[in-house]
Write a structure and sequence with these properties.
The chain is mainly α. It has two domains: 21-102, Orthogonal Bundle (Rna Polymerase Sigma Factor, Chain: A), CATH 1.10.1740; 125-182, Orthogonal Bundle (Arc Repressor Mutant, subunit A). Helix content is 70%, strand content 0%. The protein has helices at 9-24, 28-51, 54-71, 81-103, 126-131, 135-146, 151-158, 162-181.
């Protein structure tokens, strides 16, 4: 077993290249194991951020890696393996989120008037604030800050121009600051 090194962009690029070579050589099991060990926790955190339900996120994370396993022979190398995996994860999470929203119902008896607490922002955690952001802002914040991705990586994963990602980050930071002042 190799000693664990802190992940840097160079290390990640090297690991991506290793996985890319495994896939070209049709060593799918090795490539899958490598991707699973490197990205399982990050995919799970992304799923929690999008779905806001750890149990559902765990289920979706398993679905993501099942889809990855099935898609490995189709990998064409246009995107890095990590970016490709995140695209699969994001799309799977968004599909699950949409599907869950169609099924979600709340009995009218369970709806209560919101009560404003006197404690203000001290009682609100950052995760709760992030969950209140619009979907795209939540994804950008999660990828950029929680997953520590670069702007160009976030843009590629979300299929957006870099300027649009920066705009979403700016709006999300403003919204979070306002929420924290509440």
């Amino acid at each position: 077993m190799q000693p664990s090194r802190p992940l840097t962009s160079t290390n990640v690029a090297e690991m991506d290249e290793d996985v890319r070579q495994m896939l070209q050589q049709r060593h799918y099991a090795q490539a899958f194991e490598r991707l699973l060990s490197l990205y399982e926790n990050k995919v799970f955190r992304m799923a929690v951020a999008i779905l806001r339900n750890p149990a559902r996120a765990e289920e979706i994370t398993q679905d993501v890696f099942l889809k990855l396993w099935q898609a490995l022979p189709c990998y064409d190398g246009r995107a890095g393996p990590r970016t490709w995996l995140y695209a699969i994860a994001r799309n799977t999470c968004l599909t699950a989120s949409r599907s869950d929203s169609y099924r979600r119902t709340t009995p009218l008896d369970d709806i209560h008037e919101p009560v404003r607490s006197d404690t203000g922002s001290r009682g609100i955690e950052l995760a709760q604030c992030i969950s209140r952001l619009p979907e795209m802002q939540r994804q950008v914040i999660t990828l950029f800050y929680l997953e520590e991705r670069r702007i160009d990586d976030v843009a590629q994963m979300l299929g957006l121009p870099e300027g649009t990602v920066k705009s979403h980050l700016h709006r999300a930071r403003l919204a979070l600051a306002a929420m924290m002042k509440e």
